[in-house]
Each structure stands twice: as C-alpha cells, then as structure tokens.
Design goal:
2 copies of one chain form a homodimer. With about 300 residues, chain A is an alpha/beta fold. Chain A has one domain: Ribokinase (UDP-N-acetylmuramoyl-L-alanine:D-glutamate ligase). Helix content of chain A is about 35%, strand content about 25%. Chain A has 11 helices and 13 strands. In chain A, helix 1 runs parallel beside helix 8, helix 8 runs antiparallel to helix 9 and helix 9 packs across helix 11. The longest helix of chain A has 18 residues. The first copy, chain A, is globular and about 55 Å long. At the A-B interface, helix 7, strand 13, helix 9 and helix 11 of A face helix 7, strand 13, helix 9 and helix 11 of B.
Chain lengths: ~300, ~300
C-alpha cells in the first residue's frame, strides 16, 4: 500500500546542547517521507526553491519516494527554519522563519496520487489541508497534523477539516488547547466528538496516547541515553505510525496500538542525531530490532 | 508477609482547584499504611501530638495496621503541612510546615518490628532513615523515599543510607538531581551505581519507570478524567508497589514490574479525592478491577 505525504520541505538551521548545523535538510514532509519509506512506497507533494540542493533531491529519489509531486519553483527560495533547543530540550525556540515558496503553497496533486490509500496531511494551514483532502478519492486513512498556531488562529477552518479526516496527531498541549480542557483524557474525548475516530497524542519523552473508537492505549517513549536534536521527532513518529498501518493494512484498535509502538521506535532514531542524520543511516532491520526492545521495555 | 512503614503522620490543609480541606489526616506514613493494608498487614512507626484526633487512630486500628509503634507525645503538637496545587496541579506549593513532634523524631522500633521482612523508609532526614535501617534484622526488601531537600542538603548522609537499602523511589526531577545528570536513563544508571538494585522513578501523570538489575520497565499512569488532590500519590504509589511485593514475595524483575503496575493503580485512587477520602472507600476488589483496566490500557 502506498502512502502520500503533503507538507513542507525545508532547509533548517538548528542549535542544541550537542552542537549546531546550518541549512540541513528538514521540513515535516522530509522527515515523514524518509521515515515512512522504511515501511511502504511514499509519494511526496511539496515545494522547493531554486536554492534547494540537488543532493537532497537525490536522497529522496534513492529511497522509495515518488517525486512526481515535488515542485521546484524557479526564482523562488526554499522554506527556511532556524531554531534552538536548550536544557532538557522539551520545546523548540524558533529564531527565524522564512516561508519563501511555502507561503503560496496550494498543491494540486498529480492525478495518479489522488487515489493513494494512506495520506498524511503534515502541519500547515487547515484551509490548504482541506484543499488537499478534497482532491483525494476514497482514501482508507487520512491522518492530519496541526499546531497551536492554527488551533488558536484558524480554529473554525481546522475543525472543518478535522471532520473530513480519520485521525489527528498532536502533542499534549495542543490537545488541551484544541479541546479547551486541561485534563488530557477529557480533552481527547472532546476532540473525538469533532467526528474523529483516531487521536494520537504525543508527549515527547513521556511517550504517546492513542484513542480509537473510545478505547485508550498508552506507550512510554523508548528509553534513550542520548537525545541530540528533537527536530522532526513528531513527523517521524507519524511516519512510523502511518507507515506500519499502510504496511499491515490493519486499522483495528490492535493494529493501531502496534502502529503506535512503531511510531515510538522510529522517532527514537530521529532524535539521536541532528536533522535526518540518524534516520538516514537506520535500516529496517535496525528498526525491527529496536521495536522488539521497546516491546520488552513495556510488556508486563 | 508483613510490611513496616516508618514516617510522618500529619494534619494537612490543602487547596486545589477542586476545593479545600482543613486539618485532615495526612503524612507519608498515613497514606502508605492505609494503601498498603489492602495487600498485607502493616506495622506503623510514627509520632503524633496530643492534638491528634482519636478518630484517626481508630481509622488505622480498624484496618490491618499494628499501632504498637505509634507514639503519642504528651504536651506535643502533631506535624502540620499546608499546601496548594494550582492549574494542572503538577507540583505542590508548600504554604506552611510546622514540624512540631516530628522535629525530634528518632524512632526506636518495637522489638517485634525489627524482623519485618518488607520495610518502607518514608521521606525524612537520611540520618534518621539510617538509624532505623540499622535496627532491622535481615529484611527481605527495604525501600527508601527521599526528596530534593535532602538530596541537596544532606547528600553524603543520603548516599550512605542508599548503600544499605534495596531500592529507592523518587520522582524524575529528584532522580536527575541525585545523579547530577539531566538525561533520565543515564541518571537512573548513575543512581544504580550507588549500590541499589531497584530504582523506581515516579513521573506523576506520565507514569513511572522501574530499573532492576540493569533492566528497564515503563508504565504509563492510569488515565483519569478527574484528579482532585495529588497529595499522597507518591506514598500510595510506593504502598501499592511494596504491598504487592510483600503479598506475592516475588522480587524478580517480572515480580517488580507487576508490583509497579499495582503502585500505579493504587495511586490513581488516591488522587481522585482529597487526602485519604478516596483511598478509604476503596476496596481490594475495586483495586483489582482497576488493575485489570490498567493492564488492558498498556498491553500491546
């Protein structure tokens, strides 16, 4: 089963207590597609500028990633994000954002992409997410990511698109804001009432929660001794989750629980290196071995 | 198997977003002994003042709690704590502490208590904890609780007593301070190097970690829709853990993993009511049913 991702490809500059990197490959769709390509063929829809290094395009192409939807805008500059993490690195501080070509991103899917069964609508303006959703033909499972900027600034549009997707992935603070409810369990129940059957709540080093048709499942994070850069953890978490769902085709509660553990495993690789460094060198075999280690860490 | 607890019995005044209570029964040893009495007979060693209500003494006596070590100091006043929790209630703000009779608490165990197999040294001055530890005759398992006040103020004494116990229970910030290490997994490994075979790290609403002989296990917190008062959660967590160990007598990694889930279950009752209100009305049957619900919430 193939998997479509629509989102940002970026050039990131990142500082953490472990070092810094300038203009490295980043963006939600980059993390997602590289991570998900360990599970199923990926179709990428994104926009880049003239300045985007050809070597990054090659990295995607060398994997199982279809680039028919990667638009290079002549005369444009690639989306850039600059941020830093301090102390325990539990939140990114954005130092600069240059939207550039992403500012006018209003993707039209290649015709052959419209019937992709599994779809990830990465974090962006919910109006754009809805525009993409409406081009899809009977998808099996559409997962949407969002952030506080849209929850507070484009609430009505966000709730509109949430009614047309199968699942949402957000962090615990975002879940509380979206539901306007401080207790996380009640917050998740309120979000379900928007019409969503699957809600995935990421809690960083504290793991994740899955809510599926009224049933709850919780998984702790994989225990890591070294976290170098949290950038992309959420997108690769979503990739492990949706990648495992697409690979196995089991959308039951049991299937989604297992998929959540794959999300946890994949994200644990991402944060061990800067940007995509660690995720690039990971093999499927290594993912499966760590997945087994995670299961033994959480099984009573 | 019986279980000994040495610690504070207090009169607490607490404010949370859900209301307030004045001079209710509190203190680490109260929470621990009431909670642990659902599992095994408990022996309580603590000190109270003349002002301590006889009805509270009756509450202990009506349960399976041996009060031969409960000293009432004539002319003295009971330890009092006043605190409040705001917002998401993740930390208590202490408004007032009156040590009173607790200030000179230097317990001599009743002779028949010295050979109790399972022992909880509740949070207090590590010098006092060591004084108690040295009165014990070949215990099977001694668990120690501590807090940041002793970690920073009595570090050498704390490390001395840690070498003579089997396990320590602390929250994640305390673990980081004790180990002087910001990564929690590395922190736990450093604490183990003090000579401890069992380390239990409580993370509040994010669950708990167990480290036993180099092996790690993580459990999420039981998903609660209403948390009214977090006071005593840590002590009842320790009671569920040690109570289950004492009841089953299985100190293996598997036995301690299961015990950790009982700690999680028992603490979930405590925080649903003010002080001991909810824990008082809980039955063993109700604990076992919630334990099953917790296991289905965490099993993949």
């Amino acid at each position: 089963m193939s998997l479509l991702v629509v989102g940002s490809v970026a050039l990131d500059s990142v500082v953490t207590p472990y070092g810094h990197r300038e203009s490295i490959l980043g963006g939600a769709a980059s993390f997602f597609s590289i991570a998900a390509s360990h599970f199923v063929p990926v179709r990428l829809v994104a926009v880049i500028g003239e300045d985007f290094p050809e070597e990054h395009v090659k990295l995607f192409a060398e994997r199982n990633i279809n680039l028919a939807g990667l638009e290079r805008k002549s005369g444009g500059k690639t989306f850039r994000w600059k941020g830093r993490y301090i102390g325990r690195m539990d939140a990114a501080e954005t130092l600069a954002t240059e939207l550039n070509v992403l500012g006018s991103f209003k993707p039209t899917l290649p015709a052959e992409f419209c019937s992709t069964p599994y779809v990830f609508l990465a974090n962006t303006d919910p109006v754009t997410q809805l525009h993409v959703r409406r081009q899809l033909k009977s998808p099996k499972f559409v997962l949407l990511d969002t952030m506080n900027f849209w929850i507070s600034g484009a609430r009505a549009a966000l709730i509109e698109v949430l009614k047309e997707v199968d699942g949402v992935v957000l962090n615990d603070d975002e879940a509380r804001s979206l539901a306007e409810e401080s207790n996380l369990i009640r917050a998740v129940q309120k979000i379900a009432a928007f019409g969503l059957r699957t809600i995935v709540v990421k809690k960083g080093e504290h793991g994740a929660l899955l809510f599926r048709d009224g049933q709850l499942y919780a998984v702790p994070a994989y225990p890591l001794e070294t976290v170098r850069d949290p950038t992309g953890a959420g997108d690769s978490f979503a990739a492990g989750f949706l990648g495992a769902l697409a690979e196995r085709g089991d959308l039951s509660f049991a299937g989604q629980k297992l998929a959540l553990t794959y999300g946890t495993t994949v994200a644990s690789f991402t944060v061990e290196g800067f940007g995509l460094e660690r995720l690039m060198t990971t093999t499927r075999d290594e993912i499966d071995r760590r997945q087994e280690a995670l299961l033994s860490f959480i099984r009573v």
